[in-house]
Amino acid sequence: MKYVKEMNTYCPKCNKHTLHTASIYKAGKQRATAIGARRHEEDIHGYGGQKFPKLVRTAKTTKKQIIKLKCKVCGKFVSRLGIRLRKLEIEQ
Questions:
Q1: Domain assignment present for 42
Q2: Domain for residue 6, yes or no?
Q3: pTM for the full model?
């Protein structure tokens, strides 16, 4: 699916419709030292073994793509709800 590069939409900070630039959301690198990662690592090791079944094959063929909209006036980011599709492309 092709998505527009710039669009006029509502900005909650400006409290009016302004021009926004669109970009695709990408998750950041996960930290190995985060408390959740350490707890999960602890659950896997030792007696008792794997706590949850390991995912062998995925059921879904697509991922939900989230669109980040940045206001050109104030610079606030607003995220659009994820659309399930194979490929998302922002037009130049």
A1: yes
A2: yes
A3: 0.74
